[in-house]
TrEMBL record:
Localization in the cell: Cell membrane
Key words, A-Z: Cell membrane, Membrane, Transmembrane, Transmembrane helix, Transport
Principal location listed in the UniProt entry: membrane
GO molecular function: transmembrane transporter activity
Organism: Desulforhopalus singaporensis
Top-level taxonomy: Bacteria, Pseudomonadati, Thermodesulfobacteriota, Desulfobulbia, Desulfobulbales
Transmembrane feature ranges: 67-85, 105-126, 159-182, 209-230, 256-277, 289-309, 348-369, 381-405, 441-469, 481-502, 508-528
Protein's recorded name: Choline/carnitine/betaine transport
Amino acid sequence: MALKPPVTDLNIKVSREGFYAGFSKGTTIGSKIIISALVLWAAFFSEQAGALLLKIRGWSFESFGPWYIYAMAFVVFLCLVLAVFPSIGKVRLGGLDAKPEFSRFSWFSMMFGAGIGIGMLTFSTAEPIYHFASNPDTIIGAVAPKSAETLRSVYKWSFFHWGLTAWSCYGIVGLALAFFSYNRNLPLTIRSGLTPLFGRKMEGLAGDLVDISAVIATILGIAVTIGYGITQFASGLSIITGADWMLNSEGAPTNSAMLVGLVIIMAASILSAASGVRKGIKWLSNINMILSFALLAFFLIFGSPFVAIKSFFVGIADYIVNFPVQAMTYWANSDVEPAATLYKWQSVWWTVFYWAWWIAFAPFVGLFFARISRGRTIREYVLGTMILPSIMCFIWFTVVGGTAIDLELTGKAGGAILSAGQEAQLYATLKLMVGSGVFKLMTFMVAILLITYLVTSADSGILILNTILSGGDEGQKAKRHIIFWGSTVTVVITVLLLAGGLGAIKSAMLLGALPFSAIMVLMGLALVKALARDAMRLKIGEELVKPEVRELDNQPA
């Protein structure tokens, strides 16, 4: 019996002339209205906005914490099954004759830089140091905090947060979009990933709402990432320049310093985005990967290599053994200890917040992964988007974070790293490793690396926003649209910083993450349905959809 043919085209209405020529007016104007309302509210009612956003954050964690935990566990399982299943793993994105556009080094560099590179510079020191003092194993009394026996639990939880789970939500969104775009000839936009479930309903209002949800999540996800990055960038600038106005009385960067850093980063991002994927983004990604390897080599030579090597291999073993239980464990809110602290640790401070952050970043990173992954098999794609980036994160955490912990364990740090702010802990570690001259040089290198990572993330995000809003058109957009959305991201970060600092940005991000978490799970189910139907078609001798050959990065007229 013949199967119903799949949807191979979506009629997404785009304007033919005027300012919005080539763009979906419903999606674009709807996104602008929502973002404008958020900006005006945070700008004119900043105190009330900051307080309400914090309340929303607490409500979201308590009400939807279990959903985030189990949804992410499902996505990890799904990605691994798709890669391991023989017939599915060999499916090539773009068809049998498709060839990859980028070398493996450039492909991996762009994925790592856009996906999580900024976080490495902040959290490769900050998270191990925090877990050294407090993690679920110390909270329940299984190990003593701030001791040598804590080291294994440090990496058990750090690897959990930055391993397969983080990369799986990027991976599943990107894989679904790449398959439906390059194998089913659908537009490269979020709504295409739901066509096996909802068919042509994705052409109208329902599709517009899906894409609007992706745009809002992307803007707020980028805002959190840039917020963390500019905080560390401003801290580094204060060390390099010695400018007192850049730090407040507590030693943290001032809003003025962060706004200066923000303007520098976003201006460079807009320029890079205007040059397209093949030029600015590719070059910057290659540069930041080379600088990252140089920084890692520095820590291996002058840091604590034996601690790093031991922690890396023991940490991976612990991660593999403990992952199933960690992935499926949720600690509910309670008035009784240690359950009350475990809830705060998981839902307010670490795991659930991280899962929401990755999900908010997933539409942008996933679509970007899809855009650069044509010609890869599903197995190669999962290896490149989940396994290798996870290993890279583990190396960062053991080499950089292991050095910081070793300095505290041996007493050389004397609490200097533990007491430093999150944005300053990498610099505090470097200061203890080398003399003042080399310290300033290394701080300058970190600042440059931060710029490249921040610009790569922001300019990739700007290009992806324009791709979604133009109904999946992958061509280079007119500079006015690149400038508009780059400026919009800058304004959103600015008003949220002034309304309530980084906390307000993180709270606003949850507003975008929650609806997209449901879309992400549905995309995974839609992909399974499509791949299963294709397998059935092959079994009964039907031909599959013939993929079209498309150029990735056309220049505007």
